[in-house]
Specification:
Four copies of one chain form a homotetramer.
Chain A (H helix, E strand, L loop, with lengths): L6 H28 L5 E6 L6 H4 L7 E6 L15 H12 L4 E7 L3 H10 L7 H7 L3 H8 L6 H20 L3 H8 L4 E7 L6 E4 L6 E2 L4
Pfam family, one (chains A, B, C, D): Pro_CA
Cofactor (chains A, B, C, D): Zn(2+)
Organism (chains A, B, C, D): Pelagibacterium halotolerans (strain DSM 22347 / JCM 15775 / CGMCC 1.7692 / B2)
Chain lengths: 214, 214, 214, 214
C-alpha cells in the first residue's frame, strides 16, 4: 500500500483543474454550498467504456449514478443483508426526490456474457459474480437456448432484456411504484453501442429500443 | 412509463457525438473489438458532484467504476445474498486483472452525513439505507461522540476514516490480499473536495490525506 | 556574553534599512511621533515558520502581536502571578482599543505535538512547557484517544480545537466580553498550513475552518 | 463573533501568496517536512512597530520569536502558575537547541512608559498589566527618581536597563546558564529606534548599546 498514486490519474486531475474546474468553479462552489439536487438517477454498468457522464456529456450535479456489474436491479427484498443497489435507489427517491431513473446497458457487456456462458455450462470464475448473475440466470437460460440467434445476437438480446427486467424490478419497490403512478417519477431504459457510439432508448410502452431523433 | 426520454440527456448525447466521440471513434471501435483492459478500478460514491471520469478527466477504457452510496466496501463475506460491490471487485481483479484500486470519497457526502445523523439519534428515512450504513455505524459513533470537532469537521473526519475502512476491508478479500502482497495490485485512497476542486490522496503508510504535487 | 551579534541578523538589518525602511521612513517617523494605533491584535505561536507579519504581509503599525508556545490564551484569572498573555490582551483592548483579535494557529505545531505526546504518555522534557500545556491537556487527551484519526489528523484537529478554546477563553475576560457584545471588538480564528501556504479562517458561528475567497 | 475576517489581512495574505510564498514555496515545503531548526530565539515586544522579522528581514524558519509586553524575562521560578515566557525559552533551548537568544527592546515602548508612569504615581489602567510591570518596578523607580534626566531620556534609559535585566534573568535559568558557560549558547541585546530605524546592539561585556558596523 505504499505505492505511488497512479500518475495517469494525477495527470488527468491536472487537466480537470485547468479545464472543467477552471471554467466551472462557481458551479462547484454552489453545488457544495447548496447540496446536490440532481433530477435524474442513472443505473449503469461498471464497464470502463460506458460512463454515463461521458455519454450524456453531463456536468457536476446532474446525474446521481449507481454502477454495478451489468446494471442489475434486484427485486425489492429488505432483509438482514447489505443492499447497495437498493440503498442507492432509496436514497435517490426518498432523499433526493429524483424525477427520472434511467437504466443504461451497453454492448459487449462482460456481465451479460458471463450469464450466457454460465447458461452454456461455462460459468466464469468467482463466487460473488456467480451469485450476482443468478439474478438473470432464468432469462439468460432462455436466450442461450434459442439457437436461432447468433451468439452476438444473443448477447444484445440479453442486454436489452436485462434492462427491461431491471425496470420491472424497480416497480417492485413500493416507493418507486407509488411515485411512478403519481406521475412524480418516470423510468427509462437506454442501451449504448460502444463500437458505433449509438445510443438506443427504450419505448416505455412496447419495451423496444430505438434510436432517438437527434 | 410512456414518458419521453429526458431531453437534457438527448442534448448531452448529441454533444458527446459531435465532440468526444467524433474525435475518438477509432478508440471506441478498438475498445469494442478488443474488449476493455482498464488498469484501474475506482470505487466511488453515487453523488452527482463527484464522477471519477470527470475528476480524473478519464477517457473510454480507462476506469472500471463501481459506485454505491458513500463508497463502502463490505468485509469479505460470501453467502446466499447478492453482493454487488464484492462482485464488481471480484470481476475487476480476477477477470480484468486491474493493477490499482482507488477508493474515492468526497466532501459533503450524504451517506456519511446520514451515518453521523444516525449516531446522533436522527436516522435518515429508509430501511435499505439504514442497513447499508450500519457498515460504518461503529466509526460514525466514535466520531460523533467527539464534541470537540464541529459537525463539519466530524463529517470530513468520517469521510476519510471510511475510505481507510473500505481499503482495510478490501484486504479481507483473499484474492485482493494475495495480489497486493505479490506486488501485482496496489490500493489507494482519494478524497475530493467538491467546493474547492481539491484532490487529496492517501498516504498508504500513515493513512493521511495530502494534496499531491501537481 | 562577549559573543559577536549574529552576523545574519546584521545582514538582514542592512537589507531592512536599504529596503523597507528606505521606502517607508516617513511612516516610521510618523508612527514614532504619533504612537502606534493598530486596529488588530494577533495572538500567534513562537514558531519560526509562522510569523504573522510575513503571512499577512503587514507593515509597521498594523499588528500588535503576542506570541507564545501554541498560541494559548489562559482563562481569565487575575492573581499574584505574572500573566504575560493576559497583560498583552489587556493592553491591546484597554489602551490600544483594538477592534479585532485574531488567534492564529498553524500546522506542525511543536506545542500541540507535545500536548498529544503527553496524552500518549510521552511528555516532552521541561517543567515549564509541561505546565503550560496542561491548559490543553483535557482536549488533547480526548483527541489522542480517538484512534480512528491518524496522528497527523489528530495534530490538525487539536490545532483547530485549541484556536477555538483560546477564543472561548478570550470571552472569559470581562473587558473582552463587554466589547464583543457591544460590537466594538470581534474575535477571529485562523490556521496557517506551513507546507502549502494555505490560510484557513474560522467561521465564528460554526467554528469551522475554511479557505477564504481570495 | 460572526464578523467578517478583517479584509486588510486577506489582502495582505494575497500579497504573501503571490509574493514571498510564490518564490519560496520549496523552502516552506521543506520546513514543513523537516521541521523548524532556527538557530536564534528573539524575545521582543508586542509593539506593532517593531516586528523582529521585519527589522531583521528574516525569512521562514530563521527566528523563534516570543513577544510579550516590554520584552520582559521573569527570573527563573517554576511553580504552579502558567509561565508563557519561560515555557518558550525552555522550548527554544531544550527542544530546538538554539545557539543565540536576542532580547530586543525598542524606543517609545508603551510598557516601559507605563512602568515610569506607575513610579510617578500614575499607574496605567489594568490589573494584569500592573502586575506584569512590577517585574521592573524597582529599576523604573530608580530611573524615575533621577530628575536630571528628561522624561525622554528616562524612557530610553529604562528601555536599555530592562534589556540588561532580561538578559540577567535569563542567566537564572539553569539550562541557559549551563549552555552559555559551555559555549553552546550566547545572549544578546538589541534596541530599535522606531523613528530613525536605527538598530543598537549591546556590548556583552559593558552592557553599552552601540550602533554596529554595517
Amino acid at each position: 500500500m505504499t505505492q505511488q498514486f497512479p500518475p495517469f490519474l494525477i495527470e488527468g486531475y491536472r487537466n480537470f483543474m485547468s479545464g472543467r474546474y477552471a471554467t466551472e468553479s462557481q458551479r462547484y462552489r454552489k453545488l457544495a454550498d447548496e447540496g446536490q439536487k440532481p433530477t435524474t438517477m442513472v443505473i449503469a454498468c461498471c464497464d470502463s467504456r460506458a460512463a454515463p457522464e461521458t455519454i450524456f456529456d453531463a456536468g457536476p450535479g446532474q446525474l446521481f449514478v449507481l454502477r454495478n456489474v451489468a446494471n442489475l436491479v434486484p427485486p425489492f427484498g429488505p432483509d438482514a443483508a447489505y443492499h447497495g443497489t437498493s440503498s442507492a435507489i432509496e436514497f435517490a427517491i426518498i432523499h433526493l426526490k429524483v424525477e427520472n431513473i434511467v437504466v443504461m446497458g451497453h454492448g459487449r457487456c462482460g456481465g451479460i456474457a458471463g450469464a450466457l456462458a454460465t447458461a452454456a455450462g461455462h460459468a466464469p470464475e468467482g463466487a460473488f459474480i456467480g451469485k450476482w448473475l443468478t439474478m438473470i440466470e432464468e432469462v439468460a437460460g432462455k436466450v442461450e437456448a434459442n439457437s436461432l440467434l447468433t451468439s452476438s445476437e444473443q448477447q444484445t438480446a440479453l442486454e436489452r432484456i436485462v434492462i427491461r427486467q431491471s425496470i420491472g424490478n424497480l416497480m417492485t419497490f413500493p416507493f418507486v411504484k407509488e411515485r411512478v403512478e403519481a406521475g412524480a417519477l418516470s423510468l427509462h431504459g437506454a442501451w449504448f453501442d460502444i463500437s458505433s457510439g449509438e445510443l438506443w432508448t427504450m419505448n416505455g410502452e412496447s419495451g423496444d429500443f430505438m434510436r432517438p431523433e437527434l
